Amino acid sequence: MGRKRKSVWRWRIAALLLLAAIVAGTYGWWRAIGWQPPRAEYPMQGALVGADDGAVDFNALRATGADFVYLEASHGAEGRDPQFPRNLAAATDAPLPHGAVHAYDPCVPAQRQAANFVTIVPRDPQLLPPAIALDKLASECADPIVEAGLESELTTFINQVEGHAGQPVVLKISPAFEAEHAIAARVERNLWLERDFLQPDYAGRPWTLWTATSYLRGEASDGPLRWVVVQP
């Protein structure tokens, strides 16, 4: 009988611990999907939008508190975000200040990538500075020549995009890319870093843009939004 009572109590304790874990997890998830950096600390806030976000409502995005939006536009030499034309028109109509993002592929010659970007992104002085997303590692190209020439090729791409846009680019650097290539110290451009909930410090110098959360949910999209703030 004693053993049976101990077994029942162990089961009850285990059930209570499991319930507590579920409640804590649910509360944490609820806090995460509604969290935005304090507006008092970061007055300028916006979003990063691409095809994976589906059909975003840009008027609802403004109501969420977006002051600007960056739109994923192109990647590599031929890749194009299928939602970019629609998103560009919607951001213009909203109206929301907006800029374009190119995902840089170190395995592809810079000139071919620049040709892709300038073909899809209009030459418009009203656009925000273009952003170059640096995520794919040169080591993935399996070519030591590519790794050795990364900075030179990237500089060529930057120069051509800046010539088209008429303003300096922003380098959107992932933690993995910076860890392998340490590009932030070698290319002097404004930085866009990423880290959920906590300020990023992996670039070794101050950031200009910060993707502060990739979990924010609201009426603008069926899925979570990547929420971006500007260094005040």
Model description:
This protein is of the alpha/beta class and 232 residues long. The chain is built from 7 helices and 9 strands; from the N terminus they run αβαββαβαβααβαβββ. It has an 8-stranded mixed beta barrel, surrounded by 5 helices. α4 runs parallel beside α6 (150-165). It is globular and about 70 Å long. Mean pLDDT is 90; it is low at 19-31.
Class by alpha and beta content: alpha/beta
Provide the β-strand percentage band.
Answer: 15-25%
Our measurement of the CA-to-CA distance between the termini, rounded to an integer number of angstroms, reads: 68 Å
Helix content: 25-40%
| Shape designation | globular
- Strand order in space, largest sheet: 1-2-4-5-6-7-8-9
Tell me how many strands there are. 9
